[in-house]
Specification:
heterodimer, A: 261 residues, alpha/beta, Rossmann fold, 9-stranded mixed β-sheet, two-stranded antiparallel sheet, 11 strands, B: 381 residues, alpha+beta, Butyryl-Coa Dehydrogenase, subunit A, domain 1, Butyryl-CoA Dehydrogenase, subunit A, domain 2, Butyryl-CoA Dehydrogenase, subunit A, domain 3, 3 domains, 4-stranded mixed β-sheet, 4-stranded antiparallel β-sheet, 11 helices, binds flavin-adenine dinucleotide, ETF_beta_N (chain A), transport (chain A), ETF_b (chain A)
Chain lengths: 261, 381
C-alpha cells in the first residue's frame, strides 16, 4: 500500500499567450489562464492507477503562489486524497535548487513516503532537473523519464525512454520517479469528484513552517539569474530547392550542411 | 470567444470549466470528421457518463447531481457549441430519464435510475410515429397486457439514438381512449422483438442516429410501466416542456459557434485592402448575430429559472425554443454569408452548422406547434 506524493505545478495554459514580466524576467503568472501542468496530470494519473491497484494514499504537493490552489484542486478532483501547498511571497523568483530544497522539506512533512512522482519537466519556466535534484536531497534513488512504472512490494521497476532506446531501471522504495508524455492518458475529473475535492484537506505551509529561512529562497539569493529575455524570433522563410533533376542530391546536401544526416 | 456567463456559484463555475475542457479537447476536434462520415459518437457519450454529465438535473439519491436547470442547460449549450450531435444527444438522454425519475416508484427508480443517470447508458425517447408527429396523440403502437408482460407491436419514427440506445422510454397505446389511452414503458434495448431500422439519411446532424424503432410482438415486463395506464401522453408532453429547453440551449450553442467562426474569419479576411470586419455591412451583420445569440440565451435562462423555482414555465419554454431555434437558423445562415464562398464549402464548419440548425425548428414540437402552445397559454390566462 504505497504512500505516494505527487508534485504538481500550476502553469500558464499553453493555449494562452505567455509572457515574462519586464521588471525581473520571471514568469508573468497573471497574464495568462493558469492550469495544472499536463505532465503533472499524467503524474497524478499514475499515482491513482497505483492506488487503485494496490491501495495506499496519494498526497499532492505544490510549491507556488496562492492561485496554485486551483491546480491542487484539479488534482484532488481527479482522485488524490489530500494536499500540501507551500505558498510564501518569499519564494518569488526562486531557482531550481532553492525550489527543490523547499520541495524536499515539504516531502519530509508527509509521513512514511514510499514514492514521489513528478512530471519530467514543466511547460513553463523549467529546468527539467527538479526530480533529480530532489532525489539527491532526499537521498532516494531517481528513476527519471519513465514511460512505464511497476511496483512489486518494495521494489520499483521503470522503463525509461531516451533518444537511444529503452532502459530498464530497478530500485527499492522510497524513490523518486519522473514520468514522460507516454506514461498514460490522464482521466478527466467527474463533477462528483470536483464537489468531493472541496472537502479534502489542504495543508498550507510557509517556508518558515518548513524550517527554512526566508533569506535562503527567492530571487535575491537564487543561484541563477535571467539576465535578458527575448521572444522567440518569428520563423524565417524556408530555403527553396529548385529541382533540375538533381533535387534529391541537393536536399541531401542541405541536410548534411545542417548536420541532420 | 466563449460565452461570458454569470453563474450562480463556484460549483457551477468549476463544472462549466470541466465541460469546456472536455468540449475543447475531446469533442470539437472530432466533430467534423464524424459528421462527414455519419459516425455515431458513442465513445464520447461514455466519456460524458464517466464525467458525471449524463444525469445532472436529477436527484443525487439516484446518481444525479441535483443541479438546477439554469446550470444544466449551460452545460448542454457548451457541449452543443463544440458538437451539436452530442449536445442534442445529451438533451434527449436527459429527457428520456424524466418519466422514470419523476413518476417511477422508488422500487423502479432504485432498480433502473442509477445506471441511467450515473453510468454510461444512453437513452432514447420514443413518441413520434410516421402518421403521428405533431399530432402525437394519434399514435398507434399497441401494448396488450398479457399476464406479467405487455406485448408491444408498432413502429416508432425518427427516434434519436434508435439502434444505439440502451433503453427506450416509449409511449404506447394501451386502450382506444384517445389521448387518455396512452401509457409509458421503459423498454430495455435488448428486449426480443425490438429492432431498429437502418438510420435515416439526413440533411444534417449526421453524426446522430435517427431511426425507426420496430416493435414486433416485443415482450416488455409489466413492472416497466411508469405511472398508471393512461398517464403516458401527459408524461410525454411534460418531458417535452423541459426537453425543449435543452433544444433551445443546443440552438444557442450552435449559434454561438457560428458567430465565433464568423467573427474570426471576418477579422482575417481582407478585400479592397481592408479587413472585411471593418465594412459596416459586415459589422452590422455580426452585431445582429450577437444580439440574436445573447437574447436567445437570456430567454432560455429565464424559463429555466422559473422552472428551478417551481413556477409555471410552459409558455416560457415554448417561447425559448421558438426564439432560440429561429435565432440559430438566422445566425448560421448569416455566418455562411460572412464567410462567402469559403462558407459554402465543407472546408469550413458553418455550412454544417446551417444544416444542423434547421432540425431544431422541427423536432420536439415544430415551431408552429410552439406557437400553438404559446397561444393556448395566452388564451388560458
Ligand atoms: C432529426 C430528428 C430527430 C427526432 N428525434 C425524435 C425522437 O427522439 N423522438 C421522437 O419521438 N420524435 C423525434 N423526432 C420527430 C419529431 O419530433 C417530429 O418530426 C416533429 O414532431 C414533427 O412531426 P412530423 O415530422 O410528423 O411533421 P408534421 O406533424 O406532419 O408537420 C408538418 C408541417 O405541418 C405543420 N403543422 C402540423 N400541425 C400543425 C398545426 N396544428 N398548426 C400549424 N401547423 C401544423 C408543422 O409545423 C410542419 O411544418 C425527430 C425528428 C427529427 C427530424
Amino acid at each position: 500500500m504505497p504512500n505516494i506524493v505527487v508534485l504538481v505545478k500550476q502553469v500558464p495554459d499553453t493555449y494562452s499567450e505567455r509572457r515574462l514580466s519586464d521588471s525581473d524576467h520571471t514568469l508573468d503568472r497573471d497574464s495568462a489562464d493558469a492550469v495544472l501542468d499536463e505532465i503533472n496530470e499524467r503524474a497524478v494519473e499514475e499515482a491513482l492507477l497505483i492506488k487503485e491497484a494496490q491501495g495506499g494514499e496519494v498526497t499532492v504537493l505544490s510549491v507556488g503562489p496562492d492561485r496554485a490552489t486551483e491546480a491542487i484542486r484539479k488534482a484532488l478532483s481527479m482522485g488524490a486524497d489530500k494536499a500540501v501547498h507551500v505558498s510564501d511571497p518569499a519564494l518569488h523568483g526562486s531557482c531550481v535548487i532553492q525550489t527543490s530544497k523547499v520541495i524536499a522539506a515539504a516531502v519530509g512533512k508527509v509521513d512514511g513516503v514510499d514514492l514521489v512522482i513528478a512530471g519530467n519537466e514543466a511547460t513553463d519556466g523549467r529546468s527539467g532537473a527538479v526530480p533529480a535534484i530532489l532525489a539527491e536531497l532526499l537521498g532516494y534513488p531517481q528513476l527519471t523519464h519513465a514511460r512505464k512504472v511497476v511496483i512489486e512490494g518494495t521494489t520499483i521497476k521503470v522503463t525509461r525512454e531516451t533518444d537511444e532506446g529503452l532502459t530498464h531501471l530497478e530500485a527499492s522504495l522510497p524513490a523518486v520517479v519522473s514520468v514522460g508524455e507516454k506514461i498514460n492518458e490522464p482521466r478527466y475529473p467527474s463533477f462528483k469528484g470536483i464537489m468531493a475535492a472541496k472537502k479534502k484537506p489542504v495543508e498550507t505551509l510557509t517556508v518558515a513552517d518548513l524550517g527554512i529561512d526566508a533569506g535562503e529562497v527567492g530571487l535575491a539569493s537564487a543561484t541563477s539569474t535571467v539576465v535578458e529575455a527575448a521572444p522567440k524570433p518569428p520563423r524565417a522563410a524556408g530555403q527553396k530547392v529548385e529541382d533540375e533533376g538533381d533535387g534529391g542530391a541537393k536536399i541531401a546536401e542541405y541536410l548534411v550542411g545542417q548536420k541532420l544526416i | 470567444m466563449p460565452a461570458d456567463r454569470l453563474l450562480p456559484d463556484t460549483d457551477a463555475e468549476d463544472l462549466l470549466k470541466l465541460v469546456r475542457e472536455i468540449a475543447r479537447e475531446e469533442l470539437a476536434p472530432d466533430a467534423a470528421k464524424h459528421e462527414e462520415a455519419g459516425q455515431f459518437p458513442r465513445e464520447q457519450f461514455r466519456l460524458l457518463g464517466r464525467s458525471g454529465l449524463l444525469g445532472l438535473p436529477y436527484a443525487e439519491r439516484w446518481g444525479g447531481a441535483d443541479l438546477s436547470y439554469e446550470v444544466y442547460l449551460q452545460v448542454v449549450e457548451e457541449i452543443a457549441a463544440a458538437w451539436m450531435s452530442v449536445g442534442v444527444g445529451l438533451s434527449v438522454h436527459t429527457m428520456s430519464c424524466w418519466a422514470l425519475a419523476q413518476h417511477g416508484t422508488d422500487e423502479q427508480r432504485d432498480r433502473f435510475l442509477p445506471d441511467m443517470l450515473g453510468g454510461d447508458l444512453l437513452g432514447a425517447y420514443a413518441l413520434s410515429e410516421t402518421h403521428a408527429g405533431s399530432d402525437a396523440a394519434a399514435l398507434s403502437t399497441r401494448a396488450r397486457r398479457d399476464g406479467a408482460e405487455y406485448t408491444v407491436s408498432g413502429t416508432k419514427a425518427w427516434i434519436t439514438h434508435g439502434g444505439e440506445a440502451d433503453f427506450y422510454t416509449t409511449m404506447v397505446r394501451t386502450s382506444d381512449d384517445g389521448p387518455r389511452g396512452i401509457s409509458c414503458l421503459l423498454v430495455d434495448a435488448a428486449t426480443p422483438g425490438l429492432t431498429a431500422a437502418p438510420p435515416e439519411r439526413k440533411m444534417g446532424l449526421t453524426g446522430s442516429t435517427t431511426a425507426q424503432v420496430v416493435f414486433d410482438g416485443a415482450r416488455v415486463p409489466a413492472d416497466r410501466l411508469i405511472g398508471a395506464e393512461g398517464d403516458g401522453l401527459r408524461f410525454a408532453l411534460d418531458a417535452l416542456n423541459s426537453g425543449r429547453l435543452g433544444i433551445a440551449a443546443c440552438a444557442v450553442g450552435l449559434a454561438q459557434a457560428a458567430l465565433d467562426e464568423a467573427v474570426a474569419y471576418a477579422k482575417q479576411r481582407s478585400q479592397f485592402d481592408r479587413a472585411i470586419v471593418d465594412f459596416q455591412g459586415v459589422e452590422f451583420l455580426l452585431a445582429d448575430m450577437a444580439a440574436a445569440v445573447e437574447s436567445a440565451r437570456a430567454t432560455y435562462l429565464e424559463a429555466a429559472r422559473r422552472r428551478d423555482r417551481g413556477l409555471p414555465f410552459v409558455r416560457q419554454a415554448s417561447i425559448a425554443k421558438l426564439v432560440a431555434t429561429d435565432a440559430a437558423m438566422k445566425v448560421t445562415t448569416d455566418a455562411v454569408q460572412v464567410l462567402g464562398g469559403a462558407g459554402y464549402t465543407r472546408d469550413f464548419p458553418v455550412e454544417r452548422f446551417m444544416r444542423e440548425a434547421k432540425v431544431t425548428q422541427i423536432f420536439e414540437g415544430t415551431n408552429q406547434i410552439q406557437r400553438v402552445v404559446i397561444a393556448r397559454q395566452l388564451k388560458r390566462s
